[in-house]
Design goal:
Elements lengths: L9 H7 L12 E2 L2 E2 L10 E6 L4 E7 L3 H19 L3 H17 L1 H12 L3 H21 L6 E3 L6 E9 L2 E5 L7 H12 L3 E5 L5 H17 L7 E4 L3 H8 L6 E5 L2 H13 L3 E5 L4 E5 L5 H13 L9 E7 L3 H14 L22 H15 L3 E4 L3 E2 L6 E2 L2 E4 L15 E7 L2 H9 L3 E2 L1 E5 L3 H9 L9 E4 L11 E2 L2 E2 L6 E2 L8 E9 L15
Helix pairs in contact: 1-4, 3-5, 3-7, 4-5, 4-7, 5-6, 10-11
């Protein structure tokens, strides 16, 4: 049976310069522009759906092996051109990309809502994150630097500097198809690298829309249009990337299971890898917490993006002194959350949209079934919302033991596991006991507990993101984003994350007339 296709507003398509009259769309962009689609019947196709309605949005052609090889070969040549552009001039290109994204912010946010299922404010926030990263990279273009060190030898100069790696491949996931690419693209470009982007197969429209916008900036500046190139496809295309010695770095966002395979494959060829994998995140609520603040924080972290953020809170540890009162208020808050279509007439009132894929409903059901067998008690939610259209579930709170098998896993759905704890130390122990270590937060007014939480190597959080009195979600771009342990150890966005996209050289310069050796070595003189 032929899937009925959703009709997107013509003004939206014209704004991005997408021609939906010629489908399937090309999923490959390189030095020749968009790849030919004349042999579409012989090539695998990707389908994008609106999770609010279940309707097909568009079809996109996968990249063939010959197109892939052509794209990589042309990127190698383009790298020599782009790396030779002075960093402040590269910053100017990022400024222009920022302006172009600003001009199309609402268009991109609308596409993101339709294809991913995010509520409008979250979708707009994701596009803004890309814009902010462009602005950050512009500033970085005149500020990232090496170091100068004192030399122990007379008339010697000791320094280190940084150089681009070459080709950086960015493999993004469905839940942040625009922002995560922006984190990587902006910093990789400003440090002199060229980019190969493979977006998630289910968010091709987001990938193509962003590519349409940014590729024009390069051509308008008489630069190769393929400084940023893209390929599309399923697992096979990803395997080409991770096994390709011509690609100097692979930045991967996705599950821990796949990230482990990516890490091994890239390491075997001595490539650079940046991993952003799973996060079984937790929030701790202590007896002295500002309860209203904490409830708002937990609601956003647990329900936002329908529980499909890497930083979504999965586990909630509440101290026993306020446990019953806090849970009562939190469950009441859950009951007030409006669930619905993010592309319908009341989209601006919705706080929880759909799950991105229909198979996520089965993950939701299986997790709740497993929890029931392991002693869990559902306090609120727990139902699939049977509608004629779309993939909706109720955000759910389950009271359960901290060591239940299902709690130790990351279920990428809006289920919050709640555990009563006696002490702060007990809660920290539970926070640290899972294999991932992405994001964590504590709500407390106790300054001593705050510094134990953020600063103690033995009594604090072992995560890459350690918050106080804010949710686990919603990180700013100025700090490095990433996690420890099975989250992968990668760092993106701000701080000194730019160093991951570069190779470091230590240089010693002798400007004298003698050859003194270090460590006082005398070699035949």
């Amino acid at each position: 049976m032929e899937q009925q296709q959703e009709v997107l507003p013509e003004s939206l398509l014209k704004g991005i310069d997408l021609d939906f009259s010629k489908q399937p769309l090309s999923g490959t962009f390189n030095q020749n522009g968009w790849a030919d689609t004349s042999s579409a019947s012989e090539v695998a196709q990707l389908s994008s759906f609106n999770p609010s309605t279940g309707q097909l949005i568009c079809k996109t052609l996968s990249t063939t092996k010959s197109q892939y090889d052509e794209t990589i070969s042309s990127l190698s040549a383009t790298y020599k051109v782009w790396a030779a552009v002075p960093a402040p001039k590269r910053g100017e290109i990022l400024r222009q990309i920022s302006d172009a994204l600003r001009a199309h912010k609402q268009d991109l946010a609308t596409i993101l809502s339709h294809e991913v299922g995010k509520i409008p404010s979250e979708a707009a926030g994701e596009v803004q994150e890309f814009i902010d990263m462009c602005d950050y990279a512009l500033g970085l273009s005149r500020s990232f630097s090496g170091s100068i060190f004192p030399s122990e030898r007379p008339n010697h100069f000791l320094l280190e500097n940084y150089h681009p790696l070459g080709i950086v491949a960015v493999i993004t996931a469905f839940n942040f198809p625009i922002a995560v690419f922006g984190w990587n693209m902006c910093i990789a470009l400003i440090t002199g690298n060229v980019i190969l982007w493979k977006g998630a197969p289910s968010t091709s429209l987001c990938t193509l829309s962003v590519m349409k916008i940014i590729s024009k900036v390069f051509t308008q500046n008489n630069l190769p249009q393929n400084v940023v190139s893209c390929v599309s496809g399923e697992v096979e295309v990803g395997q080409w990337i991770v096994n390709d010695k011509r690609i100097d770095m692979v930045s991967f966002t996705g599950s821990t299971a796949v990230g482990r395979k990516v890490n091994v494959a890239v390491a075997e060829r001595f490539g650079r890898v940046l991993l952003e994998c799973g996060g079984n995140n937790s929030i701790i609520i202590l007896d002295d917490a500002d309860e209203q603040l904490a409830i708002r924080g937990v609601l956003f972290a647990a329900v936002g993006t329908c529980g499909q953020r890497c930083t979504t809170v999965r586990r909630l540890f509440v101290q026993e002194g306020i446990y019953d009162r806090f849970l009562s208020k939190l469950t009441e808050g859950y009951k007030q959350v409006k669930i619905g279509s993010v592309s319908g007439a009341e989209k601006d009132k919705v706080l929880c949209g759909p799950l991105h894929r229909p198979d996520s409903i089965k993950i939701y059901e299986n997790a709740l079934a497993a929890a029931a067998k392991q002693g869990g008690k559902t306090l609120v939610g727990g139902q699939v919302i049977e509608r004629q259209k779309g993939w909706f579930v109720q955000p759910t709170i389950v009271e359960i033991g901290h060591d239940a098998e299902i709690v130790q896993e990351e279920s990428f759905v809006p289920i919050l596991w709640v555990v009563k704890v006696k002490t702060f130390e007990e809660a920290v122990r539970y926070n640290n006991e899972v294999s991932q270590g992405l994001s964590s937060s504590v709500f407390t007014r106790d300054v001593r507990k705050v510094f134990e939480w953020i600063g103690s190597s033995t009594g604090g959080s072992d995560c890459g993101i350690v918050n106080v009195n804010i949710p686990t979600s919603g990180a700013e771009i100025g700090g490095a984003f990433g996690g420890n342990k099975a989250t992968g150890g990668g760092r993106e966005a701000g701080a000194d994350s730019w160093k991951q996209y570069t190779r470091r050289s230590t240089c010693t310069i002798n400007y004298g007339n003698s050859l003194p050796l270090s460590q006082g070595i005398n070699f035949g003189e």
